[in-house]
Specification:
Blueprint: E1 5-10, H1 32-40, E2 47-53, E3 73-77, E4 91-95, H2 112-120, E5 126-131, H3 154-160, E6 165-171, H4 176-186, E7 190-199, H5 206-215, E8 219-221, H6 223-228
Parallel strand pairs: 1-2, 1-6, 2-5, 6-7, 7-8
Antiparallel strand pairs: 3-4
The structure holds zinc ion.
Length: about 230
């Protein structure tokens, strides 16, 4: 079977970028130019996807909705109130964040420099996939919410194009890139992440994050590995 590769650019949005992003990832701007160079290399890709975190203003992942401080952990109950075998409501511990990527705001827009190049691309086919728009649940993966209930169009778009290999870049290495790449692997794609085209929320824990990738069968690679592949 011939290999077909998709490049997925995760959440290159102003709220994740310094200097003004509400949830700015340190040194996030460093990845913009390398990612632009990747998307312009049209012979490398059979499909391009850019994702956007896209929240309603009262999204459940915002600390402001819980009268607590950002970056703390809260326990969330299953959106459909499912219970475990012991008749207890299913819960998940999740970090809450500053308000970010609210639909229609500047912070939710894709970086302008990236967007300009993206708009100029005529091939291969490209899609923007939004996630996070259901108010009552968190999304990290661009494939589905954290409970695995609501699926975005990611899987069907990849299948429609016969994609075998999915390569992830963007923000943040330890959250949305990580969970997206893990889901891609779980869903049967060859899943890769280009490490130098990502930055982490918790840069001091990058070794732990590397382990999570390899544990899930995701290959952590560099740009130079692409031409060799
Ligand atoms: Zn979000």
């Amino acid at each position: 079977m011939s290999r077909k590769a998709a490049l997925v650019v995760i959440d290159l949005q102003y709220d994740f970028l310094p200097p003004d992003g509400s949830l700015a990832v340190a040194n996030g701007n460093d990845v913009v130019l390398p990612i632009i160079n990747l998307i312009k290399n049209k012979n490398q890709w059979n499909l391009l996807i850019a994702t956007q975190d896209w929240h309603p203003k009262d999204h459940i992942s915002f600390a402001s909705q819980h009268n607590t401080s950002p970056y703390t952990e809260l326990s969330f109950t299953h959106p459909l109130k499912e219970k475990d075998d012991g008749d207890e409501l299913l819960t998940k511990k999740q970090t809450v964040w500053p308000d970010h990527c609210v639909q229609g705001t500047h912070g939710a827009e894709l970086n302008e420099q990236f967007k300009k190049e993206w708009d100029n691309i005529t091939e291969p086919e490209k899609y923007v996939v939004k996630k996070g728009y259901l108010q009552d649940r968190e999304y990290y993966s661009c494939f589905m919410d954290v409970w695995g209930l609501h699926k975005t169009e990611m899987t069907s778009v990849l299948h429609e194009h016969g994609i075998t290999d999915v390569v992830f870049v963007g923000l943040a290495y330890d959250f949305c890139v990580l969970n997206s790449a893990i889901d891609a692997s779980r869903l049967g794609f060859n899943s890769y992440v280009i490490k130098e085209c990502c930055r982490s929320v918790y840069a001091d824990k990058v070794a732990d994050t590397d382990n999570k990738y390899s544990h899930a069968g995701v290959k952590v690679i560099s740009i130079n590995d692409l031409s060799a592949a």
